[in-house]
Design a protein that fits this description.
Blueprint lengths: L1 H15 L19 E8 L5 E8 L5 E5 L4 E8 L5 E3 L7 H5 L8 E2 L5 E2 L3 E4 L2 E4 L8 E2 L12 E5 L6 E8 L10 E9 L4 E10 L3 E2 L3 E2 L17 E4 L1 E5 L12 E2 L11 E2 L9 H6 L3 E6 L7 E7 L5 E7 L3 E5 L23 E5 L14 E2 L5 E11 L1
Antiparallel strand pairs: 1-2, 2-3, 3-4, 4-5, 6-16, 7-10, 8-9, 11-12, 12-13, 13-14, 14-27, 15-26, 17-20, 17-22, 18-19, 18-21, 21-24, 22-23, 23-27, 24-25
The structure holds beta-D-glucopyranose.
Length: 385
């Protein structure tokens, strides 16, 4: 039985010339059963081969990640009746990801969210970044980490399959200083946790704010929008924004506002309230400051789709999370299975530092210096009840 399964997995591995069941600690009569496979996901317009790495566990959870944009392409999870469905937005084929699209599942960098006027000063030098969102810089610029090819390697493990993705962002890319070496690793645990670990080093002082831009819809496409999802965000304060969605600098208590998610509440319950901040964001598009009990992984948010019973918990080492309710999704894109990606059909919980931190000395620092290692982790934990 174990042997049979192992052979099947090794056959898939042969395609990508990956190692299979050959570790020294594994006796020859008991080959290791790997739960990661690699398959082709097409080619970019300049003929670069794109691969999909599929991580599986014994509970039917399956995460597919491609080396273009280090993107989470699909995440399949069972509902309370055991029915498995894909709970993230995106496309069935590479094509959709090569056209303009709002960062579905991608790793965003060098800087997640906005930097005002695409400008910041570090060590007395003013750096001018690519401007791609009105007068501001958004999600790393014109060709951010979501649009580059990463070097991928499968992590072959029976219990914690994964994929490690590496990218060298050259000094001056999109206007940022320093050669930046980034490693992003996705691993899937037997407890239905998809963990993303981020590591980076630089050879010059720089700024950095990496995140993952997955849009969740825990109904697996059964519900056209996410307004019925119940959301808890572990935050007492958020950063109000100006008309360009740049934080003004204030840390505002959520208490008494539609931004109070300390107790679970439906995303749609107050989204239409007459509120200046909701008006500016066209809904929720705000940075919430995580209430921490210490360093390390902290529970950031919990989302529940009452109909399917699927639950998503987000844990992170990051100080904040951008809760974005998919306000700019407008039905012009067709996604998986040809389904229209409608207004607010997915939500993002982008664990990160505060937007525009390089221009706010009072915000936690995003500066990375030579000799230091940037290290952050985020976990998407899935369950059903
Ligand atoms: C931003 C939104 C933006 C979306 C897609 C989110 O992280 O906060 O303002 O529209 O990403 O780009």
């Amino acid at each position: 039985m174990i042997n049979g399964k192992s052979v099947a997995v090794c056959a898939a591995f042969a395609l990508g010339a990956l190692s299979c069941g050959k570790t020294e600690s594994t006796p020859a009569h008991k080959p290791m059963v790997s739960n990661v496979t690699k398959q082709s996901f097409g080619q970019t317009t300049d003929a670069q081969a794109i691969d999909l790495y599929i991580l599986k566990n014994a509970n039917g959870v399956e995460a597919s990640i491609m080396n273009y944009g280090a993107t989470l392409v699909s995440l399949k999870a069972p509902d309370k009746a055991g029915a498995v469905a894909d709970v993230v937005l995106g496309f069935d084929s590479l094509d959709g990801y090569l056209k303009p699209e709002p960062y579905f599942g991608a790793i965003v960098g060098r800087y997640g969210n906005r930097i005002a006027k695409g400008r910041f000063t570090l060590d007395g030098v003013t750096y001018k970044l690519a401007v791609n969102n009105g007068e501001n810089h958004l999600h790393g610029g014109i060709k951010g980490f979501d649009k580059v090819l990463w070097t991928a390697r499968a992590i072959d493990s029976p219990t914690k399959p994964g994929v490690e993705l590496k990218y060298l962002s050259k000094d001056g890319e999109e206007g940022y200083p320093g050669n930046l070496n980034v490693t992003v690793t996705y691993t899937l645990s037997p407890a239905n946790e998809l963990q993303i670990d981020y590591l980076a080093t630089t050879d010059k002082d720089t700024v950095l704010n990496l995140t993952n831009h997955t849009y969740f819809n825990l109904s697996g496409g059964a519900a056209p929008d996410i307004l019925g999802h119940e959301l808890m965000i572990n935050a007492e304060r958020f950063t109000p924004v100006d008309a360009g969605l740049i934080p003004a600098g204030e840390l505002r208590p959520v208490e008494g506002t539609p931004f109070d998610f300390r107790q679970p509440v439906a995303i749609g319950a107050r989204i239409g309230a007459s509120d200046e901040q909701l008006k500016r964001g066209k809904g929720y598009d705000h940075n919430f400051i995580v209430k921490r009990t210490g360093p390390g992984l902290e529970l950031v948010a919990r989302a529940v789709d009452p109909a399917s019973g699927r639950v998503l918990e987000v844990l992170s080492t990051q100080p904040a999370v951008q809760f974005y309710s998919g306000n700019f999704l407008d039905g012009t894109l067709a996604g998986k299975g040809g389904r229209i990606i409608g207004h607010r059909s997915g939500f993002c919980l982008e664990t990160q530092h505060y937007p525009d931190s390089p221009n706010h000395p009072a915000f936690p620092t995003v500066v990375l210096k030579p000799g230091e290692t940037y290290s952050q982790s985020t976990v998407f934990r899935l369950a059903a009840r």
